[in-house]
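Session log. Operator J.P. requested a structure for one protein chain; no other inputs attached. Running the standard single-chain path with token output.
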Amino acid sequence: MKQRKENGNLSKIRDEMERRLIVMRYSKESAKKYIQILGWVENYLDAYGETNYSKESGQRFLAEYPLQSKHSQSQYTSARTVIRRLDEILENKMFTPCFRETKNECPLRFSGIHEKYLEKLVKRGYRKSTITSRKMYSARMLSRLPETVLSLETLSAADLYNVFTKHEWPSVGLLASRDMLFFLYEKNVTKTNLSECVPRPRRPRALPSVYSGDEVRRLLSTVDRSTGLGKRDYAILILAAHLGLRSSDIVGLSFKDVDYKAKTIEIIQSKTERPVKLVMNSEAEEAIKDYIQNGRPQSSGTEGSHDKIFLGSQAPFAPLSAGSGYTVAKKYFYLAGIAAHGRRRGAHALRASYATALIAKGVPYAVVQEALGHENPESAKYYVRVDTNRLRMCALDVPKPIGAFAVMLNDLEGVL
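Structure written below.
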């Protein structure tokens, strides 16, 4: 058995972790989980020849952690908690409790109408993920109604006031609540359309996270393409940066989707469920071939793994999850040392950079829309907001002040 080096701060951190778990009376199951994940962190650092834990190495561990198919999503969530605890030990801070709001279930007295609402969502043809979200937030709204509301027929605006003023709601929660209340009005359960009582906070649409061509090339050059993992990651990044594919569509690519003779990729997009056909450039084609021929592991028979191109790097070599593209991109943004400056670091940032580069070159919006697989023709114009050169062409001259405003400026001339 390989002996781990005891130099550095790892042994002290482990001792302090064990001490805190005992003093704070963690359950045996939780303590065992913490120590197990700490062991994974130690193994990870040992593989890189490191004996000192730092906040940066903890984030690197998390960046690569989800790519290992042997770990579940729940284990990844636990790993994030352990890394936070290790950072607190490193900074000599007490463990900060993490409070989570309980997932409220629909009150029994409203369950009948709530089930009918969910049935309508199914009939509307909503995706399963959308229905799950609407179910959770509409049930949460109903659970927060006053106990005095025994029937939704007597529901009033006053009953809803505290529901939306005393609790924080994400935009998807407000949308689900609004939809549920409109359903009640539509079915004549309520006499008035109470969906108008749901707040409509105006939030400015964030600018897309865009990186320059030099930054994208720097990111790609960071990948070690001599390993199977590097070949896979490089192909994923190329498909995002050169073809503008979404992360979920990249990791979902099957062998049948790629036509090497026609040099095209043809898929049904997971987000919009619309077909899109893209022409591969030489870099994308070579990256895919290189991974398949020289880096892709032999699948051990996991359901669907024979058909999917991109697999996990460890046995049983299962297909990557939808979020793996984000994790891959984030890892190499970090390794490349590219400053974020408020920008996001996932695969979608590479997609946005690709779209912005096309628009900056004068490619028509209709072509960009088709390349990105957008359903709405206006969607491509979203990326114009960061093209400052083209925005300057739309600038208007400042009009000369007139009337009372001109008089006010004259009065302030000696002051300003």
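Operator note: The longest helix spans residues 28-47.
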